[in-house]
């Protein structure tokens, strides 16, 4: 059974930094690209970032470019999101998500974590 | 880039049917759309993918036969027949776009379904 478990969500002041983690199990992690998707409370989903299976390429939504960095450690079956210069607009549940197809950068997301809440507030 | 539009809410009486619509912006009529269900307090769950020819691939794990999709023009539909209390959820549509360094995934605003 595929499991994705996010951690690292906290309350943090504007301008602060935070790293989220996603622990993956139940599938061959290094075969898949991985994504972060966020959801502000009461709002819709927003795709945030993608990293290819080997960590060689990363993509970001415009609103986080230059502030967020996605990374992975295939030896630890783990995905990360380093978040810097946080603003109140970054307050959201952050989900890691796995695409269906091996090697594909984009495909529908067939597995999701339960989410980690990041609250940016003074 | 494509924009996905969804009505904010829909409702149906227990046992009735409801059809949700996800509308692609002009010029993207060939795009497939993915439907996700999100129950209160939970992460999203894949329902199925739809193109102009209907379902693409398989339904998500555990998605009942009561769920079906259709695609026409810029619209992608998700129909829930014989709606049950457990179907009360937010439903999101999404689509991937682009290639190379300009690739991303876009979601619609979501539709909240209430079972009366």
Report on the structure:
- Chain A has 122 residues and is mostly beta strands.
- Helices cover 0% and strands 49% of the residues of chain A.
- Chain A is built from no helices and 11 strands.
- In chain A, strands 2, 4, 5, 6, 9, 10 and 11 form a 7-stranded mixed β-sheet that branches. Chain A has a 4-stranded antiparallel β-sheet with strand order 1-3-8-7, with no helix packed on it.
- In chain A, strand 4 (34-39) and strand 5 (45-51) form a beta hairpin.
- Chain A starts with a strand and ends with a strand.
- With 116 residues, chain B is mainly β.
- Chain B is built from no helices and 11 strands.
- In chain B, strands 2, 4, 5, 6, 9, 10 and 11 form a 7-stranded mixed β-sheet that branches. A 4-stranded antiparallel β-sheet of chain B has the order 1-3-8-7, with no helix packed on it.
- Chain B is globular and about 45 Å long.
- Chain A binds chain B through residues 35, 37, 43-47, 50, 59, 61, 95, 97, 100, 105-110, 112-115, and chain B through 34, 36, 42-46, 49, 57, 60-61, 92, 94, 96, 101, 103-110.
**DSSP strand content of chain B:** over 45%
Helix content of chain B: under 10%
Q: Tell me the total number of β-strands of chain B.
A: 11
The termini of chain B sit apart by 37 Å
* Structural class computed from helices and strand pairing of chain A: mainly beta
Helical segment tally of chain B? Answer: 0
Question: What's the overall geometry of chain A?
Answer: globular
Task: Please give the structural blueprint.
The complex is a heterodimer of chains A (122) and B (116).
Chain A: E1 3-7, E2 11-12, E3 18-25, E4 34-39, E5 45-51, E6 58-60, E7 68-73, E8 78-83, E9 92-99, E10 109-112, E11 116-120
Parallel strand pairs in A: 2-11
Antiparallel strand pairs in A: 1-3, 3-8, 4-5, 4-9, 5-6, 7-8, 9-10, 9-11
Chain B: E1 4-5, E2 9-12, E3 18-24, E4 33-38, E5 45-51, E6 54-56, E7 67-72, E8 75-80, E9 90-97, E10 104-107, E11 111-115
Parallel strand pairs in B: 2-11
Antiparallel strand pairs in B: 1-3, 3-8, 4-5, 4-9, 5-6, 7-8, 9-10, 9-11
